[in-house]
Design brief:
Its EC number is 1.-.-.-. By secondary structure, the protein is of the alpha+beta class. The protein is built from three helices and four strands.
């Protein structure tokens, strides 16, 4: 069963260019992963510095493997220094 994930990120406005650079590498590398069906970065149109990642994974197992990938671990380490708050992550299965 496919796993849908939404991750919400809030960055300090002074570091938006840095955030985008970090995201670019993360998205590029993640899209190469087995089981990644969708991995899209969206910027909130009304809230500067707010981004959300829309993810679709073939399975929970594929997503679990993603969580251990070096490019994600590096992103978390670097992004945590310039974020306003902790990442919010929502996971679920399509109902209808």
């Amino acid at each position: 069963m496919n796993l849908h994930v939404i991750a919400l990120f809030k960055f300090n406005e002074n570091y938006l260019m840095d955030a985008v650079e970090l995201f670019q590498n993360l998205v590029k590398e993640t899209r190469k992963e087995e089981g990644c069906l969708q991995y899209d970065l969206i910027e909130d149109k009304d809230n500067k510095g707010t981004f959300f990642m829309v993810e679709l994974w073939e399975s929970v197992e594929h997503h679990n493997r993603h969580n251990g990938q070096d490019h994600l671990l590096d992103f978390r380490k670097d992004a945590s220094k310039i974020m306003e708050s902790a990442v919010e992550v929502y996971k679920g299965f399509k109902i209808y």
